[in-house]
Design brief:
Elements: H1 4-15, H2 21-28, E1 33-35, E2 40-42, H3 45-49, E3 55-56, H4 62-74, E4 80-83, H5 87-93, E5 99-102, E6 107-110, E7 118-125, H6 131-143, E8 146-151, H7 159-163, H8 166-170, E9 174-179, H9 185-190, E10 197-201, H10 213-220, E11 227-229, H11 235-250
Parallel strand pairs: 3-4, 7-8, 7-9, 9-10, 10-11
Antiparallel strand pairs: 1-2, 4-6, 5-6
Helix pairs in contact: 4-5, 6-11
């Protein structure tokens, strides 16, 4: 049992008399994780959280990444996200499992399959240099079943670029604002839209930006209401949170 849909089907089968309660219990008791020695793969995460476990690629060998992805694929997991994975590792992993790799955000999608596109999330960046983090957020949201609009290089240094895209911003259920330097984009967007804004500070900037710390502090001190902040360069976390917000809105 790897997702809520499978469990519901099993429960309906018990109700219809197509399977016994004892057999259903046995299926549910199947081990919820597999110990590979170097990793304990959580197969029941999608049951608890609605999304399969995400593989954090940094610090793992290509063999470890491939082994985890293969174990998940054998249990029926699809569209498995692998974040922060370099191109060399991706080439090795692709020899073992089906892989859609995107080099800009260093993100892989193992066992890619059909995806839904619910609601509307906007991912906006202050500059082109913020794209790696923004693409991590956008692809994460897309893999999790959301419609995403990208608005790149619309920072406050040329505010007219942002203001010319008010229609997609104002029709969004959530906006992810990705910016380095002084991180002002999140406050500006937060003052324009009526939906939650997820601010992502990036490490883009000169010396006094302190590797994204200045943008982080600026976003944490935003005067715009409804603006939350994730960690520096955490595009994945922003895309995941935006997906949860968007899909909760869709249930109303």
């Amino acid at each position: 049992m790897d997702n809520k849909h499978d469990i519901l089907e099993l429960l309906w089968a018990v109700k219809a008399g197509e399977t016994t309660p004892e057999d259903a219990l046995l299926e549910l008791k199947q081990k919820p994780f597999e110990d590979l020695g170097y990793a304990k793969v959580d197969f029941h995460r999608s049951v608890r959280q609605g999304a399969a476990e995400v593989i954090y690629g940094a610090g793992k060998t290509a063999g470890q990444i491939a082994g985890i992805a293969a174990a998940m694929g054998e249990r029926g997991c699809r569209n498995i996200l692998i974040t922060r994975m370099g191109e060399e590792a991706a080439q090795v992993v692709a020899q073992s499992v089906p892989l859609d790799y995107r080099s800009i955000p260093r993100l892989g999608i193992a066992f890619p399959g059909e995806r839904t596109a619910l609601g509307h999330i906007v991912v906006a960046t202050g500059g082109t240099s913020d794209m790696p983090v923004a693409e991590e957020a956008a692809l994460t949201a897309e893999v999790m079943g959301n419609k995403v609009t990208r608005l790149y290089d619309v920072g406050v240094a040329g505010l007219h670029r942002l203001l010319s895209n008010l229609e997609p911003l104002m029709s969004a259920r959530c906006v992810v604002a990705v910016a380095g330097m002084e991180g002002a984009l999140a406050s500006v967007v937060g003052g324009l839209v009526d939906c939650p804004v997820v601010a992502v500070p990036t490490s883009v900037g000169y010396g006094a930006s302190f590797g994204g710390l200045s943008a982080l502090l600026a976003m944490l001190n935003s005067c715009a209401s409804g603006c939350s902040v994730v960690n520096i360069d955490n595009g994945f976390g922003a895309g995941y949170l935006a997906s949860m917000i968007n899909q909760m809105e869709g249930l109303q």
